[in-house]
Every structure is written in structure tokens, then in C-alpha cells.
């Protein structure tokens, strides 16, 4: 039975990995699609057409004649992109003397424009910085904070609102709500799979998160911080690049699973207080509660991080304890033989 559960767990993680990484895994990709630890378009290089980049860092020093689409830890545009730039990254920088011929659509922690953007700038970021050398031909829409230097030139309007332009409407907009419901259903589907395949393990994770929240949160924080650092260290070696790249998707799959377990733990806490022992009700309560809390203006931004933090920490803790228990069981099963050498418990005199 333990072997069956182990194989089921491996199969589930494999399915999650495929769902998350199928579209970006290297293989028979076209020339305009590049992946790896670092994607660089050199200063004397020209990419004809669009470029899709998935990497730890993306640097465009040369020319891209089409659009640039990418997901990376950081994106730096030093040269020219004739089309639009659509990226999701930790930081996005358009350096002085760099040119974006179309729009700049960026979802990032920080977006800095020090060069020229002929179209609009839509920055879904905590900070949008327009330096003295920045030149934007169209409108500027930012998410939270704008730092605009006196010399920054903007040809259109400057406004705070949702990425895509237009003033922010009060309350959640219909498109945002539709996506929220979609992800609620996706999370529910994964939760059902977890409870069906690993009922006892799932309950153990939820109990660990409820009974030891501080320890679970601490372990989750270490996992969230330590895993990316380890992956970066592995990526520094050429041999380690494929391992690091694959590790990113495994980490995302585990973090997503932790987020589901965080919701399940919340539902378990509520149903236990009500004296109801029903795993399906606990999952439903946790999913709906997290969905509702994320719509609130103040606490909504911390719901997902907390769910990942406590759920991932509890998941890692339970996996670790079961692995140690398995090792102890394997060591106990191996006893000394008649001559004092290693043997198994089944080998009697």
C-alpha cells in the first residue's frame, strides 16, 4: 500500500509538472523561442519576427523586429524591439538609448523606463519608475506607485488603474471576477484530486498546519526562500541549467499544491470548530473563504501568500516526517545475521 501511495504521489506531481511546463519546456522549439538560465540577444544580433523568451534573465542588446513575449526573473532592454513587449518578471528595465516601437505591457515588482516607448506603458507593478531620459509616446497606466522624474516625457495621459488602460472601477471588475472564479474551479479540481488520491496524507497536512501554524509558516518561508536560491546556485553551472529549469516547474507544482492544502487547512479549522468531520465540506469552506477574502481591498493581497506559506510548510513537514519514518522502518527491517553481518528480519536462525 505504501508503495502504491508513493507511486501515486509521483504520478500526480508528474501530471502537475506537465500542466505547468509543457508549453515552455525546451525541445523542438522554433528559432524565435528561447529558454534557459539566461536568454541574451547580443548587440550585433537581429531576431527576425517575434521572440518568446522563458529564462531566469532576458537581455535584449540587439534588435527584435517583432514582439517580445517572455517570463523571466528580470528583463533588460538595451537595444531595440520594433513591436510590443509583453513580459511577466520580477524587474523590467528599458535602459537609456533603448527603444520599444509598440506598447510595453509588464507585470512585475518594479518597472523602470529610462528609454523610449513609442506606444503605451501598462505596468501592473508595485512601482513604475520614469526617469529623466524616459519618453513615452502614448498613455501610462500604473498599478500602485509612480515615480516620475521632471524630465520624463509622456505624450498621452497618466493614470492609476488596471493594466490595459481606463480608470479603475469601484469593486472587482467583471473580467477580474471571471478569472477569479476560473481559478477557484481549477483549485477545486486539484483539491478534489488530492483528497481522492491522498485522503489520509491530506488530512495529516491540514492537521499539521492547524496544530503547528508557527512551525508550518516557518518551514514554508524557508522553502519559499531557500528553494529559489538553491535553483539559482544550480543554474550557475552549465550542467545544472536543465536541472534548475526543471526544478522551477517542480517547485511551482509543489507551491501550488501547498496553496490548496492551505485552503483545506483553513476549512478544516472552521469545520472542526463547528464539530463537523467532513473533508469535502472542509475543502469547500476553505476554497470559498479564500475566494471571498481575496476580493477584500486590504486583506486580499495577503491571502494567497499566507495560504502558500502555511500549506507549503505543512506539506514539507509531513513529507519529511514520513520520509524519516520510512527510513527508520527500512533500517529496522534489516537486522544482523547469525555471523553479525547485515541481513533481514526474515532471516532467522
Q: What's the topology here?
A:
Blueprint: H1 2-21, E1 33-41, E2 46-47, E3 51-60, E4 63-64, E5 68-77, E6 80-81, E7 85-94, E8 99-100, E9 104-113, E10 116-117, E11 121-130, E12 135-136, E13 140-142, E14 145-148, E15 153-154, E16 158-160, H2 174-197, H3 199-211, H4 213-235, H5 240-273, H6 279-294, H7 300-333
Parallel strand pairs: 1-3, 2-4, 3-5, 4-6, 5-7, 6-8, 7-9, 8-10, 9-11, 10-12, 11-13, 11-14, 12-15, 13-16
Helix pairs in contact: 1-5, 2-3, 2-5, 2-6, 3-4, 3-5, 3-7, 4-5, 4-7, 5-6, 5-7, 6-7
Structure explained in plain terms:
The structure is a single chain. Helix 5 crosses helix 6. The two termini are 29 Å apart. Residues 1-31, 164-175 and 337-349 have low confidence and may be disordered. It contains 7 helices and 16 strands. It is globular, with a radius of gyration of 25 Å. Strands 1, 3, 5, 7, 9, 11, 13, 14 and 16 form a 9-stranded parallel sheet that branches. A 7-stranded parallel sheet has the order 2-4-6-8-10-12-15, with no helix packed on it. It is an alpha/beta fold.
State the gist of this model:
The chain is an alpha/beta fold.
What is the tally of helical segments?
Answer: 7
Which stretches of 5+ consecutive residues score pLDDT under 50?
1-31, 164-175, 337-349
Would you count the extended β strands for me?
A: 16
Shape: globular
Average predicted local confidence, pLDDT: 80
Instruction: Using the CA coordinates, give the radius of gyration.
Output: 25 Å
H/E element sequence:
HEEEEEEEEEEEEEEEEHHHHHH
Query: Helical proportion?
Result: 40-55%
Percentage of residues in strands: 15-25%
For the sheet with most strands, the description reads:
9 strands, parallel
Our measurement of the CA-to-CA distance between the termini, rounded to an integer number of angstroms, reads 29 Å
**Structural class by helix and strand composition:** alpha/beta
